[in-house]
Specification:
The chain contains 10 helices and 21 strands. The chain has 474 residues and is an alpha/beta fold. The chain has 3 domains: 33-119, Vaccinia Virus protein VP39 (Rossmann fold), CATH 3.40.50.150; 144-243, RNA methyltransferase domain (HRMD) like (Transcription Regulator spoIIAA, 2-Layer Sandwich), CATH 3.30.750; 280-472, Vaccinia Virus protein VP39 (Rossmann fold). The protein has a 7-stranded mixed beta sheet with strand order 15-14-13-16-19-21-20, with helices on both faces. It has a 4-stranded mixed beta sheet with strand order 3-4-6-5. Helix 4 crosses helix 5 and helix 6 packs parallel to helix 7 (311-318). It is globular and about 80 Å long. The model is unreliable at 245-251 (pLDDT under 50). Residues 123-146 are annotated as: Disordered. It holds the Pfam family Methyltrans_SAM. GO terms for molecular function: nucleic acid binding; rRNA (guanine-N2-)-methyltransferase activity. Residues 238-429 form the S-adenosylmethionine-dependent methyltransferase domain.
């Protein structure tokens, strides 16, 4: 018998139970995430699982994603096995994508639950059509709303097809809550190495006035349309629930799949992860900003503050910047940034390596620090081009205080401008929808809003971000 759990406390408790029962050597307990669980080589048997039910743990979308991941793991690694899953909500059981051959109903106190008995088989191949290719899966009967959603997806895809092909865009927003009842954002990502298409679906949390059952039905309809009309398997549709995030939740890990793949953006190749975090590692609406900055970066020393995964820095480096410096507080995102540099054949230093450079400063460096504190400590260092895209709000524990871009932007801009060389430029960007730039507070600076930064796939959302080019007067 082999047991796994992702939580260290649960593993310790299980080991204590095994010891108390005198079953050492018979029962093996190990800490593993769901994504790491595989069947022992050459064996078949029974998989028993008691995933969260939703009565006490997790919100609905997180649980649906968890059950979908569990079904995917069974299909990929446990073919020929039997699975017995204790499930407190039959609708969550549907997210597995597996059919139960038997259901046993029982009660845990007031909670009615079921044991789902599942035989895990190889997926049946689709019959071949006259052209020798697999026939498309049958399309379920659709409601009027689902048909409208499908028509809008088709219309948008046709509208964006010529543009994306002409511009070489392989990742773009297909749908942005065009129909209020289907309140989703749908982004398409094409893997650079395989050419496979993935859909990243973000459901905007409905108001309390919307019935949860109706929202769940529309969610199911939308996902079915996306899979069927875009020809995607379940594994290539990645869904998340978008809510207002506070504090550490802004950057909290949602999963531990490690499923990342490279995408192309102009001359750059960049890693994205559609499962493990709320954001994917690449802000698609900033695509034109990155392209413009790449063109402006030649021969310049570039500073990228609040750099996230440093896609801006990679573009600047590919645009022949003489150096880039990327600063962020997150170790995870800086390690991601280092992989982005490596993917493009660019050497960089940091974030954890010794940065007390003895001879010369490297061309591309990653620095883990509070960007606001770091810029206060730079003394005589100067840059030709600074890109600053702070979060709307942050109260990370590693910061000395909080950051509110509306409250703090005047100080941030002045401190960045002080680090510019003569004729240098600060590009300041924000995605705060109601942001108001305090022009009067920016005395001594020349401010010009950068035009042409909203791409066609975000045309419905003209306030997705704003960007200004700021220079010192005189």
């Amino acid at each position: 018998m082999i047991g796994y759990d992702a939580e260290p406390d649960a593993v310790r408790a299980a080991l204590a139970c095994v010891s108390a029962a005198g079953l050492q050597g018979v029962v093996h307990i190990e800490k593993r995430s769901l994504a790491e669980v595989e069947a022992p080589s050459g064996l078949t048997g029974l998989v028993v699982c008691n995933p969260p039910w939703g009565e006490r743990l997790g919100n609905r979308r997180e649980l649906e994603s968890l059950y979908a991941a569990l079904g995917r793991q069974l299909r990929e690694h446990f073919v020929g096995w039997e699975a017995a899953l204790l499930c407190g909500d039959t609708s969550l059981g549907r997210s597995l994508g597996l059919r139960a051959r038997k259901r046993n109903v029982l009660h845990d106190g007031p909670i009615e639950c079921q044991i789902l008995r599942i035989d895990v088989h190889e997926p049946k191949p689709r019959p071949l059509g006259a052209d020798g290719k697999p026939e498309p899966a049958p399309v379920r009967e659709r409601s009027e709303g689902a048909r409208s959603f499908a028509n809008r997806l088709s219309k948008n895809k046709k509208k964006l097809r010529a543009w994306s092909k002409r511009e070489g865009v392989s990742c773009y927003r297909l749908y942005e809550a065009d129909i209020p009842e289907y309140n989703f954002a749908v982004d398409l990502y094409e893997a650079a190495d395989t050419g496979l298409l993935h859909a990243h679906v973000q459901e905007y949390a409905p108001p309390d006035t919307v019935d949860e059952g109706d929202a769940r039905r529309r969610r199911g309809e939308a996902l079915a349309v996306i899979r069927e009309d875009l020809g995607l398997t379940r594994e290539r549709v990645h869904i998340k629930r978008r809510e207002r995030q506070k504090g550490a939740k802004q950057y909290a890990k949602l999963d531990d799949s490690g499923n990342e793949f490279a995408v192309r953006e102009g001359p750059a190749r960049l890693w994205v992860n559609l499962d493990d975090y709320l954001d994917t590692g690449l802000f698609l609406d900033h695509r034109p900003v990155r392209a413009k900055l790449r063109e402006a970066a030649a021969g310049k020393q570039v500073l990228n503050l609040f750099c996230y995964t440093a896609s801006v820095s990679v573009h600047a480096a590919l645009g022949r910047a003489s150096s880039t410096t990327s600063v962020d507080l997150s170790r995870i995102y800086l390690e991601w940034a280092a992989r982005n540099f490596a993917l493009n054949g660019l050497a960089c230093v940091g974030p954890e390596e010794d940065q007390g450079y003895r001879r010369s400063r490297p061309a591309h460096e990653l620095i883990r620090d509070d960007a606001l504190e770091w810029i206060r400590e730079q003394g005589s260092r100067r840059w030709d081009l600074i890109f600053c895209d702070p979060p709307s709000f942050s109260n990370s524990k590693r910061m000395r205080g909080t950051l509110d871009v509306q409250r703090d932007h005047v100080e941030i801009i002045h401190r960045c401008a002080a680090l510019l060389r003569p004729q240098g430029q600060l590009w300041f960007s924000t995605n705060l929808r109601k942001f108001k730039l305090d022009i009067e507070g920016l005395d001594g600076l020349v401010v010009e809003e950068l035009s042409g930064t909203i791409p066609p796939d975000f045309a419905r959302n003209k306030t997705i971000h704003r960007c200004w080019v700021i220079t010192r007067r005189g």
